[in-house]
């Protein structure tokens, strides 16, 4: 078993490996988006739309986490990771060979069921190896991946589609899955001692999930970060329509705007990694939630006077997204802090709550899109306000 000896210093190799696992989600979601027009042409005349394949991946990711978390607590972190990555790799290969949208949607759902193992196990491994402060720092370093991948993945996907076709993207994901399997086999030591792990059963699962759902601190941190992430998913869902159709930005201009949001997110997460060396992560989190709530008020008021100018609307959005660099790593570390023996189960439930809220917000944004910015602004503001309310209602303020 690996200890936490090198958790707080430098960039250990195991954390780089966890970064690769974290990249599975952004790569699988963002890299194949440029292939939608080509898929539509290939499957012309068939029922359904390429967007349904994306929804399939989301559904698989949301439910799959609830499977791998308890398994990783009972059998160790690596066996469920092997199973999930193997399933992801096979589903990626099958997606490259799909002959219809229905078949592709099924394999995308299966891809999500497998790939989400990396999300769950990554958080659990960090909890196994690190204390609260170092966990928050490690999570902040992983936010680099979450910020860079959405910038790089669409550009890489666009080049692959233009050069080799959309099926080549799934071949590339197959290769990435195989590479992760090999890297885990060679470079990641087991971090969870299962010698005293209780037997796994439906009753035990019910007790563990019930205890977590009834714990104020865990639910406060999970819902606060979940609502904050929901606002980000609403932005991803609604911003192309708002900025390209209402503000008439070109595809390239929108890409630069999205990149600036990602840069803000990356900078905030790296500032957070340094702040928590001298401040408690929970204190930084509370201040970031307050800042996000104030930005939400700004966003909610802007549309009342008509469509705001581009800068007036984009600036608070960029700051709101940047605040996630302080919120997500600190909330994750705090939520898992007291759940060493069931860190996998806690990580799974936290991830499922986050992904469920995010998917709901993204869907609402898609349904509410119209000829004004108000729906997007108000949904993001509502998510930010809900994050602040749940955090302050369920979690006691840290002592000064």
From TrEMBL:
Query: Where is it localised?
Result: Cell inner membrane; Cell membrane
Q: How does it sit in the membrane?
A: Multi-pass membrane protein
Any GO CC annotation of this UniProt entry: plasma membrane
Q: Which residues form the Major facilitator superfamily (MFS) profile domain?
A: 14-399
Keywords, comma-separated and alphabetical: Cell inner membrane, Cell membrane, Membrane, Transmembrane, Transmembrane helix, Transport
Query: Key word Membrane present in the record?
Result: yes
Q: Which GO terms describe its biological process?
A: xenobiotic detoxification by transmembrane export across the plasma membrane
The molecular function terms of the Gene Ontology recorded here are:
sodium:proton antiporter activity; xenobiotic transmembrane transporter activity
> Which residue ranges traverse the bilayer?
12-32, 52-69, 81-100, 106-126, 138-160, 166-188, 209-236, 256-276, 288-305, 311-336, 348-370, 376-395
Q: Cross-referenced InterPro entries, in alphabetical order?
A: Efflux_drug-R_Bcr/CmlA, MFS, MFS_dom, MFS_trans_sf
Leader sequence segment: none
Q: Which family does it belong to?
A: Belongs to the major facilitator superfamily. Bcr/CmlA family.
Q: Read off the NCBIfam families from this record.
A: efflux_Bcr_CflA, PRK11102.1
Q: What is this protein's record name? A: Bcr/CflA family efflux transporter
């Amino acid at each position: 078993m690996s200890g936490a000896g090198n958790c707080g210093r430098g960039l250990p190799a195991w954390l780089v490996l966890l970064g690769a696992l974290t990249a599975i989600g952004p790569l699988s979601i963002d890299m194949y988006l440029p292939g939608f027009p080509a898929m539509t042409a290939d499957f012309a005349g068939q029922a359904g739309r390429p967007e349904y394949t994306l929804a399939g991946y989301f559904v698989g990711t949301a439910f799959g986490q609830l499977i791998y978390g308890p398994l990783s607590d009972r059998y160790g972190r690596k066996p469920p990771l092997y199973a999930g990555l193997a399933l992801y790799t096979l589903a990626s290969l099958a997606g490259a060979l799909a002959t219809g949208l229905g078949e592709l949607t099924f394999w995308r759902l299966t891809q999500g069921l497998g790939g989400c193992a990396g999300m769950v196990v990554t958080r659990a491994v960090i909890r196994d190896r690190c204390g609260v402060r170092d966990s928050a720092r490690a999570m902040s370093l992983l936010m680099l991946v979450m910020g860079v991948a959405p910038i790089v993945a669409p550009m890489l996907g666009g080049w692959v589609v233009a050069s080799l076709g959309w099926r080549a993207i799934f071949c590339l994901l197959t290769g990435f899955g195989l590479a992760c399997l090999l890297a885990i086999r060679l470079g990641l030591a087991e971090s969870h001692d299962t010698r005293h792990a209780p037997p796994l059963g439906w009753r035990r699962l019910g007790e563990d999930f019930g205890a977590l759902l009834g714990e104020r601190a865990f639910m406060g941190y999970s819902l606060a970060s979940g609502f904050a992430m929901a606002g980000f998913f609403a932005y991803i869902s609604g911003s192309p329509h708002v900025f390209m159709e209402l503000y008439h930005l070109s595809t390239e201009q929108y890409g630069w705007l999205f990149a600036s949001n990602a840069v803000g997110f990356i900078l905030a997460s790296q500032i957070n990694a340094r702040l928590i060396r001298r401040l408690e992560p929970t204190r930084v989190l509370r201040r970031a939630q307050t800042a996000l709530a104030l930005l939400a008020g700004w966003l909610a008021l802007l549309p009342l006077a008509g469509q705001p100018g581009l800068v007036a609307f984009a600036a608070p959005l960029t700051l709101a997204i940047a605040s996630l660099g302080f919120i997500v790593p600190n909330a994750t570390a705090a939520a898992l802090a007291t759940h060493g023996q069931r860190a996998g189960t806690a990580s799974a439930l936290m991830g499922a709550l986050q992904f469920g809220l995010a998917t709901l917000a993204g869907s609402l944004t898609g349904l509410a899109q119209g000829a004004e910015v108000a729906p997007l602004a108000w949904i993001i503001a509502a998510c930010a306000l809900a994050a602040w309310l749940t955090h302050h209602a369920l979690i006691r303020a840290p002592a000064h």
